[in-house]
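Work Package 3 (structural annotation) set out to generate three-dimensional models for the target panel prioritized at the project kickoff. During this period the team completed the workflow that converts sequence records into discrete structure tokens, so that structures can be stored uniformly alongside our sequence database. As a representative example, we reproduce one entry of 488 residues exactly as it appears in the project archive.
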Amino acid sequence: MAEDGRPLVAVVGGGVSGLAAARVLAGLAPAALEEKLEGVGVVLLEASGRLGGKILTGELGGHLVELGPDQLLRRDPSAERLCRHLGLGDDLVAPVPGGAAVYSYGEMRPLPRGLVLGVPTDLDALAASGIVSADGVSRAGKGATDAAVISAAELGLAGDGGAERTAGSLLRERLGDEVVDRLVDPLLGGINAGGVDAMSLAVSAPHVARALCGARQVVGPLRALARPAVPAAGAPAGPVFLGLRGGLGRLVDRCRAELERSGVDVRIATPARGLRLLPDGGVEVATASGEAIRCDGVVLASPGHDAAALLGEAAPEAADELAGVPYASVAVLTARYAPGSVELPGQWSGVLVPRIERMLMTAATWLSVKWPWMVPDGSVLVRVSAGRYGDERIAGLDDASLAERLLEELGAVSGVDAQPAEVSVTRWERAFPQYRPGHPRRIEAVRQMLAAGGPVELAGAVLGGIGVPACIRSGESAAVRLAARLRR
């Protein structure tokens, strides 16, 4: 119970999911929710020395740079809505239009038109791109003549515990290995720092899974998704992605300021060490300092492995399920080149590197092309990403060695081989959950176990959404569910 007699809720985890949950619980709900909740007392516990989780705006050579995500997908309006609610709407900016490339067979090649998360729907454009061979294009066009109808169970849409197949299994059967390895995997797999051969299509690309349900082939059924569509009622018109001038870190700073003005007890460098369910229906949260915080409810907005450690005593079966969600680690090299010292290749804003090329780097983005606000002096900023699930090579390299290796590969892929004026390496350890077949059933089982035990709700990317908007939505939804339980 809070000092003023209101219920007290602990939000464990100060990433964007936890910030979103804390806002709703404090009575600061975005307008999209049906009604603002009557605020409860909130204590927000973050183990590290800062808020924001994977959102991190840093500085390189006097320039603001995004060291984590740099854009917001507008198909889910949660992040854009929150930015506008916090007074940041005028600083939302679209990236400068520019195509992406794929490094394939020794060259950067343009992504063909008509892609749906890497799945080609225009075979003429695929052939013209050169990303795959003529035989690969022909194989994709033939599909699988004897392929069975793709069932809801195979796609993980049935909800009955059926045998879900991986995205790679379904797509290789109908597109062939070359298209999957050189086009689908670097796009669809790259989003989660994983691979399509161990991925649930229903979780990673639900709109694709729904479009393929009941179909025999892939190319034809996805053409409708590839066409520019008239926005549905309420859907955002305009660019697909948005960034925030000055960096997404401003979103975190505004959230913190608003929470503290509303009386939320925000504590950084305060790790939670465990939960204990109390006989009266409450929850006790133990912190590393030895403090025991008696709460009426908890939102766990931590990565799955951290949430599992906290639940080990209170809900051991739920903890085991969460501990079974694998995670990938990634690293980001950010390089600044002095004005006029380097020329970026072509009309592209970046390049993807397929796993089959056996390089350490997975992608590069020309940040200064995509976001001109970052470089008012004409410097060139490039970000190079590395790390996939199952590829642990980055763990064996120190920062200097990793930077040297990635700059060498950047030169081989793009021709950008000048020495940068400054570089920085940011590592994100166990940061990307891998959505294996059966993931929704696993998460639903955890929720049921927690519902039977006490007032504890989950939020965050472990539920099934990597991006910033999905994490915000998960935090808001968890807060609404917990508030409803507390009102009973």
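The chain has three domains: 8-54+249-325+435-487, 111-226, 327-433.
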